[in-house]
Amino acid sequence: MKIIFAGTPEFAAVALKALHDAGHQIPLVLTQPDRPAGRGMQLQASPVKQFAQAHQIPVAQPVSLRLDGKYPEVAKEAHALLQATPHDVMVVAAYGLILPLSVLTIPPHGCLNIHGSLLPRWRGAAPIHRAIEAGDSETGITIMQMDQGLDTGPMLLIEKLAIDAGDSTGTLHDKMAQLGGKMIVEALRLLEQNALPSTPQPEAGVTYAAKISKEEAALDFSLPAEVLERKIRAFNPFPGAFAPFAGIHLKLWQAQAVSAVGTHAAGTVISADPHDGVIVACGSGALRFTELQKPGGKRLPAAEFLKAFPMQGGRFD
C-alpha cells in the first residue's frame, strides 16, 4: 500500500521502520519541526525524520495542520501537499499535532493511529507513563481509526502486554514500540484484504493520560513507598523523579519499596550503605534507592554515588 506516515519520536520511528521493511511504499512523512536539544541546544531532527532521510523518503514539517489556527498558510500548504501525494492511508504514531477533520478525510482509507494503551483506558498524551504510575498490571497497543475526538475512534486491532514489576516507562516504551510496529503491519495486511475488523469503544472505563509535567516528578515522601516507587518508574527516563537533599535536587532513578525498620519521619535517610543502597522513610514503608544522580553528574549506582556524596543521617526536605 501507499502510506503517508505522521510521527515524531522513537516510538513512531520503530513503526515507520516496520512499514518500510514490510515493503510498503511511503511517498511522504510528516513530523514535528526540528527542536533544540542537548547541552548545546542545537536543532535536532526527530527520530522519524532521521529514518526518513536515511531512506530517501520526502519529509514535511508543518507547525500546524489547522486551517483555522495560528498558521493558516502553513496548514493550507500542508493540505495541498497531502492532496497531491498519491496514497491509500495515513498511519499516525505519536505525531504531536492535531489532525483536523479536513486532514482525516483526505486519505481514501482514513487515518490509522497506533495508540499505546488498551482503549478506552488512557486516552491522551502519556498513556505509558500513566499506566505505570497507576499500578496497572497490563497495557497494550490499540490500532484505531481516527476521528475528531481525543483517541475516541473505533478500535481495529488490540493486543495486550503485561507490565512487569521492574518496568520503567523507558523499558515498557521499547516493548510497546516493537508491538506497535508489528500490529500496524498486520492491520494494513487485513485492510488490503478488506478484512480489518472495527469495534466502537465502550463508554465505560474511559480514563485520560494527561501530559507529563516536570513538577509532577518531585517526590513527596509523606506518600506510601509503593506509590513513590511507581512514580519513579513512570518518570524514568523523562522527566526523572527528584527530591531536594542538602540544598540540591537529586535525581532518583531506581528504587524498590521495602519495609521500614523503626519509626522515622518521612524523608529521613534510615541508612546509606554501598551494598544495600539508600533507604529513606516514607509515609508508610520505605524506599531503597539503588541509582541516583547529582545535578550535572552521571547516573550512578548507590555504591558509587555514596563514595562522593555520603547521605547517612540526612533528610530529604
Automatic annotation (TrEMBL):
(6S)-5,6,7,8-tetrahydrofolate binds at S117, L118, L119, P120. The lineage of its organism: Bacteria, Pseudomonadati, Pseudomonadota, Betaproteobacteria, Burkholderiales. Its EC number is 2.1.2.9. It catalyses: L-methionyl-tRNA(fMet) + (6R)-10-formyltetrahydrofolate = N-formyl-L-methionyl-tRNA(fMet) + (6S)-5,6,7,8-tetrahydrofolate + H(+). This is Methionyl-tRNA formyltransferase. It comes from Paraherbaspirillum soli. Keywords: Protein biosynthesis, Transferase. Belongs to the Fmt family. Residues 211-309 form the Formyl transferase C-terminal domain.
